[in-house]
Amino acid sequence: MKVTKKKEMKHSQNQNGSLPQKDSAEHEGYAGECRTLRTTENNITKADRLLEQILDRTNLNKAYKRVKSNKGAAGIDKMSVDKLYEYLAQNGKGIKQKIMEGKYKPNPVRRVEIPKENGKKRPLGIPTVVDRVIQQAIVQVLSPIYERQFSDNSYGFRPNRNAHKAIRKCQENIEEGYKFVVDMDLEKFFDTVNQSKLIEVLSRTIKDGRVVSLVHKYLRSGVVIKHSYKETAEGVPQGGPLSPLLSNIMLNELDKKLEERGHRFVRYADDVMIFCRSRKSAERTFQNILSFIEKKLFLRVNVEKTVVDYVDGMKFLGIMYYHKKKEILTVVHPKTVEKMKNKIRELTARSNGWSNEKRIQKLKEYIRGWVNYFKVARIETLLKKIDGWMRRRIRMIYWKQWKKVKTRYEMLKRYGIDEQKSWEYANTRKGHWRISNSPILTRSLRTETLKKLGYISFYDYYQEQTA
Questions:
Q1: With 365 labelled, which of 132, 174, 211, 342 sits at a CA distance of 20 to 30 A?
Q2: Taking Cα atoms as reference points, which of 453, 349, 346 lies closest to residue 400?
Q3: Dihedral sign of CA atoms 122, 123, 127, 132 in order
Q4: Strand spans (E) along 179-241
Q5: Containing H/E element for 224?
Q6: 43-86 confidence digits (pLDDT tens)
Q7: How far apart are alpha carbons 277 and 182 in whole angstroms?
Q8: DSSP state, 332?
């Protein structure tokens, strides 16, 4: 695996036996495990030589640059992206040869957990950086093939498609009279994908058995949870470049079935909204498609969380829809607003030990990301309200930092408060949160002052983006 870039590259393959690995997808024995896969290296036609395309130098260089730009945490070998170039320059040829011979064994992914809105945690798998390059190289070759097959109603993890387009498509369906919705909840989708079914679906299109075998190895590579190895007999680990494509390949089966039956729907990853003209039609649609999902795709539907109802108040991608006269409006869902406020509380905590400069930068990043995502909805009034609350929290931080009487006195005077009031408030015994909303602090640390310090507001940034 040669790389033409001259500075920056590495990843250490942890194949020294320190962690047990089960390679159940070896090329020699694969055909016996999945009967649908008949193609072997001996009967691959020139047109089917996808592995050579994946391992092409140009494709690998493109994959390396993508992984390098995405940065990300290290896998189980603790190899950082910064050392990726050096490692691949020394070992890339050998890795490429092992892949060609069917002897390459991907490392297990490092399992971490990230918090969800409901207080639970979502498992996330972090592959080693070399495995991320190989996965990215696979994705770059397979994606154009599958893009020709994917539905126009699928919007997640696809080029030139995003959440904004999915939200607008939902609006179009509602405006055209499809006002009852089946909000399908696929229970722990990424953790419960039937790998045999996925390989069967994959091998219908991908006739190079070596590529299918390599993908299967990644599915079965296992995870490491707190230094303990666990096999992955089912599921598609989230976190690597390959999992979004594989999830779309699997759920494209659902898309095709919905289109075959003439349904209006919008899918973003594993979030599915099916639109119907009546409640009765929506309920019938749910029962019919439930059987297909569970008996043909071997996926699980959370019946308790799946909602069949009138569209007003429905949540999709953080957005809520409602009618105003004949117009269909979108606003940020209350649960999404609360999640945002919790994040602001975290970024403006009084005791996280951050410098003001770090806090300013973290707030900027979050505000920009949040506004760019939710600007598709009506958020002007919400943003003004949130800005006032956030400024109060920022003032509270500064008041705590000026904890000595002398410091508070000097800082209030510096920001334009007369001596008597400065001395009076410097000696107050009121709590930080209460004093943060006082006339003295709102006059001293006014909005313009906070802007000069480097803080940005949700509403100002929104106006810039929508001007």
A1: 132
A2: 349
A3: negative
A4: 180-185, 223-225, 228-230
A5: strand 223-225
A6: 444 547 899 999 999 999 999 999 999 988 999 999 999 999 99
A7: 11
A8: E
For position 114, what pLDDT does the model report?
79
Q: Rounded to whole angstroms, how far apart are CA atoms 244 and 139? A: 9
In degrees, rounded to 5, the angle at the alpha carbon of residue 248 between the alpha carbons of residues 243 and 253 is 135
CA 193/CA 186 separation, integer angstroms: 10
Per-residue pLDDT at 13 exceeds 60: no
Torsion-angle region of residue 188: left (phi > 0), alpha (psi -120 to 50) or beta? Answer: left
CB 3 within 8 Å of CB 60 = yes
CA-to-CA distance for 148 and 142, rounded, in angstroms? 11
Of 95, 162, 158, 156, nearest to 129 (Cα)? 95
| pLDDT at site 41 | 43
**Structure letter (DSSP) for residue 355:** -
CA angle 170, 250, 217 (to 5 degrees): 145
Instruction: State how far the Cα of 72 lies from the Cα of 80, in Å rounded to an integer.
Output: 8
According to DSSP, the β-strands at 109-115 and 264-268 are unpaired
Q: Are 332 and 320 in contact (CB under 8 A)?
A: yes
Amino acid, res. 243: S
Q: How far apart are CA 382 and CA 384, in angstroms?
A: 6
Burial class (CB in 10 A: 0-12, 13-18, 19+), 284: middle
Beta carbons of 180 and 288 less than 8 angstroms apart: no
CA 207/CA 197 separation, integer angstroms: 16
The CA distance from 450 to 348, in Å, is 14
Residues shown for the chain: 467
In this predicted structure, the answer to whether residue 113 has a pLDDT above a threshold of 90 is no
**In the structure, what pLDDT confidence band is assigned to residue 402 with cuts at 50, 70 and 90?**
very high
